[in-house]
């Protein structure tokens, strides 16, 4: 479905079974750590289980573009999750600043509005610029939390509204929960990148997430890519935890190819 969109020009692993590279391309491990040293230690323990690594606010504020470049130097694709949300001029400037590091993906908050997203899309539209993802409704929010910030719509309807706004503004893909991905896939078509966090393999702690699903369910419903943090980074054996998730992804990919 989204194979060609996702692959970042890296060579396939010739000794892996068919579909293995696709599964790797569809898993992003969230490096939510306070320092480059801790993040790189985890990367070593992943033993190449994934192609994409997500650098979020905690790590980027500590380690900056240097770490993005270091991860790319090790052959990884970098998903820079800064969830930009400010006036259009400021967001466009931020996109230009981070573009220099060569991240493949960058997030903005869809709640920043159409003009902000258009400004971000224009700033990213340069050679080597990142593909932009619009974060719709955070997976840590349920209907009650949404109502608390004055949004009466259900998470499903709010995600759909923001996704349509993002697409019209020229954004490449959206971040949503597994609960909305099926409806979004129908509306957005096969090429739009739909990225799903809030992933919890059976038996793992839910923590602060609210709209969650297993890797298998999220991929079966149409997710292009999964974002997984603590179920891998806090596991006793992060490499084994990542490989178990790849197996779940692979099972679905094998039946849909
Ligand atoms: O944009 C994101 O990546 C994101 C959006 C969202 O709605 N929910 C969400 O959890 N995330 C990120 O996905 C990761 C999930 O981490 P875990 O809950 O530890 O698996 C974190 O790095 C979050 O910042």
CATH superfamily: Aldolase class I
Number of helices: 12
- Globally, the shape reads globular
Q: Give me the strand/helix succession.
A: HHEHEHEHEHEHHEHEHEHH
Brief write-up:
This protein is of the alpha/beta class. It is 47% helix and 15% strand.
Can you tell me about this structure?
The chain is of the alpha/beta class and 257 residues long. It has a single domain (19-256), classed as TIM Barrel (Alpha-Beta Barrel), CATH 3.20.20. Helix content is 47%, strand content 15%. An eight-stranded parallel β-barrel has the order 1-2-3-4-5-6-7-8, surrounded by six helices. Helix 6 links the parallel strand 4 (105-109) and strand 5. Helix 5 runs parallel beside helix 6 and helix 8 (155-168) packs across helix 9 (178-188). The longest helix has 19 residues, at 238-256. It is globular. Residues 1-15 have low confidence and may be disordered. Orotidine-5'-monophosphate binds next to strand 8 and helix 11.
């Amino acid at each position: 479905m989204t194979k060609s969109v996702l692959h970042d020009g890296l060579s396939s692993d010739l000794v892996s079974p068919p579909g293995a590279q696709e599964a790797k391309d569809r898993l992003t491990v969230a490096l939510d750590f306070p320092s480059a040293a801790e993040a790189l230690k985890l990367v070593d323990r992943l033993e190449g289980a994934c192609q994409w690594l997500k650098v979020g606010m905690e790590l980027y504020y500590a380690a900056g573009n240097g770490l993005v470049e270091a991860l790319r130097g090790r052959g990884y694709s970098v998903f820079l999750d800064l969830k930009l949300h400010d006036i259009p001029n400021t967001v466009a400037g931020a996109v230009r600043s981070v573009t220099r590091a060569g991240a493949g993906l960058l997030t903005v908050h869809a709640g920043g509005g159409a003009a902000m997203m258009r400004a971000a899309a224009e700033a990213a539209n340069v050679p080597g610029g990142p593909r932009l993802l619009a974060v719709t409704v955070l997976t840590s929010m349920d209907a009650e939390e949404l109502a608390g910030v004055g949004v009466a719509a259900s998470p499903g309807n709010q995600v759909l509204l923001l996704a349509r706004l993002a697409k019209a503004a020229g954004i490449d893909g959206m971040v949503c929960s597994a609960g909305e991905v099926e409806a979004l896939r129908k509306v957005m078509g096969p090429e739009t990148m739909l990225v799903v966090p809030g992933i919890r393999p059976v038996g793992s702690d839910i923590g602060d997430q609210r709209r969650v699903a297993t890797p298998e369910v999220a991929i079966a419903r149409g997710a292009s890519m999964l974002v997984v943090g603590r179920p891998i980074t806090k596991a006793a054996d992060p490499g084994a935890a990542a490989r178990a998730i790849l197996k779940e992804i692979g099972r679905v990919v094998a039946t849909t190819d």
